[in-house]
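Two proteins, back to back. First:
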Amino acid sequence: MPFKSDLSVHRDQLQRDGYILLKDILSTKLMAELQYFLARSRSGSVAEYGTWRIGGKKQQFLFDFPSTEFANKFRDGIAALTGMAAEKLTISERHLKQYDSDAPDYPAPHKDRGASKYSIGLPIHLGPETSVCVFPTLDRTPNDGPRAVFMTEQDHPGLEDIYNSPDALPLNEELGDMIIFLGSGIYHERIRPRGTAVLYIKVNDQGFDPLGENIYT
């Protein structure tokens, strides 16, 4: 099983807040698989997903679940948490992201592409003092476009101080935790990301698969 407990008990909180940090929820099996995939990517056994590399920030690798059964159990857990029907759940991204040693500490917050109704973060290795930071009190109009949109000075005057504002909520996740939030609806960003490795799986229930990464077909 990917998760240590039933995720459905957290559904109301996720739907109310639009984000949730689930502490110590990932199973030993899933953590082992994540660590193994990270090791393979670092050894060169897995090719970098060059099409979507973000220069000066992070490398990305396309993640494969260890088995169809494991992938299906992951889908069922996420469906129970989000309230989406399991048979409609579509993976729009499944990228292991490794942040470069010179990645900026405080990038502009962004919203994910429209296909990322929910973004799910599974930390594998965390650099010092890093955290996902969400902005649930700011504009939550979903981005329905094909690319991420970044907050600008025009959107939020004083952008350079956004992480010191009351709107910024660092989640301070740890290994074994899972973060899930409305990826296309809530501004978010990883702060102080250097050296961090996180698997991001992004899902929707409308069949949107712009990168051809859905395995549930």
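And the second protein:
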Amino acid sequence: MKGLLITFEGIDFCGKSVQARLLYHRLIAYFNHDPAKVLLLREPGGSEISERIRAILLDKSLHMMNAITEMLLYEAARSQLIAEVILPALQKNRIVICDRFFDSTTAYQGYGRGIPLDVIRNAHEIAVHGVIPDRTFVIDLDPHIALIRQEKTGRARDRMELEDDEFHSKVRNGFLAIAREEPHRISVIRGDGSANAISDQIWKIVQIKHLAN
């Protein structure tokens, strides 16, 4: 088994974090409950430095943050995570599951904030150390439904989640545009079904595309 990077993307409260965890547990079971085979991470975060950057990025008191600053902080957190955690794991032939990766920056800071996409892509090239996901799942959900889900949790929204419906619609459309550009890498899964049904769809793709050999 070669190292494998699987990423999950989508707007906030689309269910991607739940699906990342479900896939993690299915893979652990697949490998006879050997936790050394699979690693579950989140972005921004996953290392001490990246988690500190995350705290800045999601601090809702920092509403004055410039869009370019925001983008560069995400890329900095990503670069550290890749260098410190993801690359060593892939070199040990582990499967890495990451809750968000560079497509989130393209969708949020590119399509959402309006930073030119070529600027975003150049920043990715610097930050990712040549690491590209082998499979990306975009969990697609209407922002209105996502907001209802958030309200039901009762959890306070962070700085990014506090953006308005128009912003989150732009981000959703951004993810779908990215998926259209890279259908070989990205699988779009509807996020309005049950968690178990969605997990079954994802597991089938992972089995066929990445575990069959």
